[in-house]
Each structure stands twice: as C-alpha cells, then as structure tokens.
Write a structure and sequence with these properties.
GO terms for molecular function: carbohydrate derivative binding. It comes from Streptomyces aurantiacus. One of its GO terms (biological process) is carbohydrate derivative metabolic process. This protein is of the alpha/beta class and 251 residues long. It has a single domain, classed as 3-Layer(aba) Sandwich (Rossmann fold). It is 43% helix and 12% strand. It has a 5-stranded parallel beta sheet, with helices on both faces. A two-stranded antiparallel sheet has the order 6-7. Helix 5 crosses helix 6. The model has no long low-confidence stretch (mean pLDDT 94).
C-alpha cells in the first residue's frame, strides 16, 4: 500500500469523525456554547484544562486569534505536555489523587466561573477529581471526552466514576478506544491518532456558538485578533485592558 493511500485513509477517518460530531453532538455543542456566553455575560471567568495530549485542545483556546480572550489555561505542573522529563511522569501524575483539588484551590477560579475539561479517556483521577472539585466550588463544567472509554475501561478514580459523570454538559468526541484510526497487516500496532483534530474542532465550534450567542444579545464577544495582521496588537491591548480582571495569562 502506498503512503499516499494511507494518508488518504486517515483524512477519510478524520472527516468521518468530524461529520459524526457535527451531526450527533449538535445539541451539546449548542448547550456548551450558550453556557460560555452566559458566563461571559454574567461577569464570570473561563478556564480550560487538559492533561498530556488532551492539553493540546485546551491550549488551542487560550490566547488564540479568533477565540475569546477570557479563556485561561488551568495548568497542572508536569501534566500539561510532553516537556516534562521523563515524559511518562506526566502520565503518572494523571493518576495521583488530591492533585486536582490542590491546583483548583491555588487558582483564581471561583463560583460562577466555567471550566472546560478535556480528557480523551476520562478515566484518570486528575480529570475526574478536577470536575468533582470544580462543581463543588460552584463552577460550571464542560467535559470533552470519548464516552466509549467508560464502557470498555476501568476508572482509575477511587469513586469508580469517569469525567462524563461530573459535568454539566458532555461533548463526546466519538474517538475509538486506543485513539488510532488505521491498521495494516505489516504493522503490529494501530496508528494515526485523530483525537486532537476532532477535539479541537469541537471546541472551536463551541467558541463559535458562544460568540454568536453573545452577538445575538447585543454583547460584543471579547475576541482576540492575530498579532500578525496590522492593528492586531492594538486591538488585543484594548481587550486586555477592558477585561483585565478576568484574564490571568496577560500580566
């Protein structure tokens, strides 16, 4: 099989997943977008969290052209990406009880805010506890996960529950167990992951919905512009100043 044919198969798989979430998750996406708009309109702050590669989709919402300036990354040291050494330490930290509560208690998050939690499997202690603790503090929680994991894997949280069990709304990425879309007889393991593509697209659709809902209410969405277009830095500076008390990555 040619490399180009495998490339095409991956694109087909990713497009198929995107079509599924577009059609099957339209309701939850609209609900999530409206929740974010409500939080912005009510003076709340927005946070996003993900561990390991799930953090990529969370980071994609923060300080991003075309996205809401109010979205802040809720980072857990050592669990945000593969920059920690050894990389396996990040995976181990996802299974540590108590870590999420410490991070939340040390963060500016408070009742009335909203937290987006991204976890493909939704089974580890960190995202489960993060959702439980956030709701106990009075935050709204949007969970982005593959619901299939809850029926085919065991929870690693002491409660035996999953991220999906502790959210105000759940967005199901439809990603299959193992996060690899392709197989080949000559390759012993499945390969080509699609979770980042699909999860990022879902979250951008949520942000688009939020911007539209705010505009319908006569509220200008606090959007960022690219710093690589003329006037972008000036635009963003105005937004930063106007919402300084709700943006925590700026200064």
């Amino acid at each position: 099989m040619s490399d180009s044919k495998l490339a095409g198969q991956f694109f087909d798989a990713a497009i198929g997943l995107l079509q599924r979430v577009r059609d099957e998750e339209a309701g939850p996406i609209e609900t999530a977008g409206t929740m974010i708009a409500d939080t912005v309109a009510d003076g709340g702050r927005l946070f996003a969290f993900g561990a390991g590669h799930s953090s990529l989709a969370a980071q994609d919402l923060v300080y991003r052209a075309g996205s809401l300036a109010l979205m802040n990354l809720l980072a857990v040291p050592g669990a945000v990406g593969v920059d920690v050494m050894p990389a396996t330490l990040g995976s181990a930290l996802e299974r540590v009880d108590g870590l999420a509560s410490v991070v939340l208690d040390s963060s500016p998050a408070r009742a009335g805010d909203l937290l987006v939690i991204v976890s493909l499997s939704g089974r580890n202690a960190l995202p489960v506890e993060m959702a439980m603790s956030a709701r106990a503090l009075g935050l709204k929680v949007i969970g982005v996960t593959s619901v299939a994991y809850a029926s085919e894997t065991a929870s690693r949280h002491s409660s035996g529950t999953y991220l999906k069990d502790h959210c105000d709304v759940v967005l199901d990425s439809k990603i299959a167990i193992g996060d690899a879309e392709l197989t080949l007889d000559t390759i012993p393991a499945p390969f080509a992951s699609a979770s980042t593509v699909v999860t990022s697209a879902m979250l951008q659709s949520v942000m688009a919905t939020a911007a539209g809902v705010l505009a319908e209410r006569g509220i200008e969405p606090p959007l960022l512009r690219s710093g690589n277009v003329d006037g972008g830095h000036e635009w963003n500076g105005r937004v930063f100043e106007e919402y300084a008390d709700r943006i925590f990555y700026w200064r």
